[in-house]
Model the fold of this input.
Amino acid sequence: GQQVMQIPQYQHVQEGEDFTTYCNSSTTLSNIQWYKQRPGGHPVFLIQLVKSGEVKKQKRLTFQFGEAKKNSSLHITATQTTDVGTYFCAGNSGYALNFGKGTSLLVTP
Amino acid sequence: GAVVSQHPSWVICKSGTSVKIECRSLDFQATTMFWYRQFPKQSLMLMATSNEGSKATYEQGVEKDKFLINHASLTLSTLTVTSAHPEDSSFYICSARTRVGTGVLANQPQHFGDGTRLSIL
Done:
């Protein structure tokens, strides 16, 4: 079945540094979604990428979908303490989402 | 919009007890709801897909007699953990999906409830 790998598992940065998490699927995806889960909270939908090579931005967050629609990345520029949390990518298998293991981001001031 | 309410938030009960968790879509109709299980610092593991008016589809390795799912209406799905044991202790999260515009349903984002922390003593 479809597997979604996500790296790194953890990332610890100083406030102001950049951060990137990568997502790789074993199969071609119809779309990929990104979610953020704050400690003790539930996942919150951030964005969805559908088109090959698509790039979307939300303020300091840049999301990319690979040309082959098998990989994706989330890049945060100049991290802030409010960016702390676990970022999950989720590949769509047609009816359900397959979540990556997530990347836990810790930002120290 | 797209608010999902999950109740209860916390459950602590004795081994052998059955526990029911409710998932409601408050401001939209959810033809499909999903139930996930999440262990500490782990990813979300899909347990089952709940479709209104039909039987739930369980993922491989999930016991359907252990985790009973009922999706009786377009706004409510319930998960009942029957005869719970300590190994069933976990964080259970539901999500709901609805159609936005004319897009493919499978592409629609999921909206998550706050989750239920279940502790079996």
